[in-house]
Predict the structure of Beta-xylanase.
Amino acid sequence: MNISRRGLLAMSGATAALIASAKLQAAEKAAAATGLKEAYKDDFLIGAALSASIIKKQDPKLVALITKEFNSITPENCQKWGEIRNEDGSWKWEDSDAIINFGSKHNMHMVGHTLGWHSQIPESVFKNKDGSYISKEALAKKQQEHITTLVDRYKGKIAAWDVVNEAMGDDNKMRTSHWYNIMGDDFLVNAFNLAHETDPKAHLMYNDYNNEQEGKRNATIEMLKRLQKRNAPIHGLGMQAHVGLASDMKNFEDSIIAYSELGLRIHLTELDIDVLPSVWNLPVAEISTRFEYKPERDPYIKGLPKEIDEQLAKAYETLFKILIKHKDKVDRVTFWGVSDDASWLNGFPIPGRTNYPLLFDRNQQPKSAYFRLLDLKK
Ligand code: GLA
């Protein structure tokens, strides 16, 4: 048979297309087969913070991604005092219920966030009409009503609670929040007792940022020992892990060891790795901080350069090697969001930047860091 050159070309084109499509199918199959939660099932839970809007959108592709990759969820905002309660104190359950129903439907481990925090809570909780502070007894009563109602609603569904968030200040002394100023250590002790009495099976955590760093770690350990002396039922320690490309990940190893010596289980509760130029010396994550926008502080508007994508992958790899090494002490690693487009770091500490801190990009496609974490388990 005489095959023309044209025919040959057409055939090789068709063969190439077939091979390419087979390869693509194989890659897709491989990607579909093993998500992070499956790859890390013998190590620790893999979680993500979810916003109520993600749940409401019901985007089937996003739902498929979330349920494939993650086996634990944390509500990003909707259980904070200022979100779940109206100004008059009445409750707004809708968003929180939606996330908990999503988690129940997909059989996920769920974390409640958060029962006691100085931020995202109205001043009126702490003040009388004339602007003076309410009494310790009055605040303790509000705290009791808040914690018992919230924990009771999700009893048996929420497995672990961030009971107190960020009680340690950036000066490594107790944060002078309204909570602490009015109630002192009783703010924390009561919070843990109330949560425990309401749901004795729930795992109760203290959660903070930068507490992997030596100074804050030591101060936190002193605080935890004080609370333990008073028999506060604390079971876990959350390191939020809002870190940057330049962060020294070795701090996490030292902290995992030091905190678990107190008998606490370890959780990374809000992990993300900021890739943008730092505008402060300390990577402080105090949420009220803001800096001015300048174009040089937002260099990757058009996309993440390859070398930064690689640095991000490397930083995640370094951290996860430590976590895997100490998997006997680590219960969970939760990312603060699913994909870069929805990360709070696009707006903090400078509003309007384009950041790339997570494992999935703006089209919900896995980045190099994602594959690096899968590779660690091969
Ligand atoms: C803190 C809180 C979180 C969240 C982040 C920023 O870390 O614990 O709930 O508000 O700040 O999104």
User: Anything to note?
Assistant: Residues 113, 165, 209, 240, 270, 285, 287, 344 surround alpha-D-galactopyranose (CB under 6 Å). Residues 5-33 form the longest helix (29 residues). Confidence is low (pLDDT under 50) at residues 1-9. The chain is about 40% helix and 15% strand.
